[in-house]
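User: Predict T6SS Phospholipase effector Tle1-like catalytic domain-containing protein's structure from this.
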Amino acid sequence: MKRLITCSDGTWNKPGNTDRGQRVVTNVEKMYQCICSYDNSTEQPIPQLKFYDKGVGTSYSWKSNLLGGITGAGIDKNIRDIYTFLITNYEPGDEIYLFGFSRGAYTARSIGGLIRNCGILKPEYLGLVDKAYELYRMRDEYTSPGSDMMVGFRKQYAWEDVTPIKFIGVWDTVGSLGIPLPWYRSWNMKKYQFHDVTLSSSVEYAFHALAIDERRKMFAPTLWQLSDTVKNNPNHPQQVEQRWFAGVHSNIGGGYADTGLSDLALDWLAEEAHRIGLCYDKEEYETIKGNPWGELRNSYSPPFWFWLPVWRPITLNDDTRQSIDASVLDRFREMYQYRPRNLRKYVSIENDKPVMV
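Assistant:
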């Protein structure tokens, strides 16, 4: 058995990016750096093979970068690259971990859907990657995971009918791809929308860190919904949590010079993955130092001024398994100016202390 870990970065995110003249690292890149090559905690060391996929819009051409950033061009390649990595290395019994931020979160979740639809192909069928991806994108009754066509496809070309995914951990999935130009949006939404937002019951653990203070309308978050299989079975082993943190989009996924807030969201996902089995380099892991009072940046800047800001809705119910991180209450307590409107329903001040309602 081995672990296969993929790390998908957000738009324009790649090693070497800077903010305010300082070299910055996103949570995806930090996670990649933390993961060690072998888990030596067991009698038989477990290999951990990892793959880092830089964000859309990070080619050498500025034109390609701009096109990728505003249209989502390049996402197809990112998904196929990760799928190819899995096909090349996977064997039944291996554990799969998928991480992603922003459009990289979209990529990670799409990989989960692609695996559910087509399985993981045996290496001798690597030439069918484009065909498998085409089938995944078709979105009709004949190519749904349970259709006769796809059951037959998996039986003929894939290792298994249902390939379990051990863990999906994502930071602030943006379903619309964050595209601020309306004349691109309708084309992109049709081409790149998720099959649906329902989390497959074949995913064992799924965790989603979300930004309370992101107010750009085009950056509306896409939360998971539980499948009927999970909702109708209170004893189903799948574990899901979608947790809200203080900050805007990149305060959650990283990319700013001040990493106080983003390290909180990173530490949460890293701890959950470690609890399940993922092994880290101790020195790298100890560089993660969250701070509830870290700088909260303003992402509402041009060209997003053309749209009125909106508050993201927060709903704490069993269908989406949302929660609010304890660090948010710490920020409430110490910073009196921090009173986001979308938290008023759930947090009140009693005896000068914030409490969950």
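Residues 3-356 form one domain.
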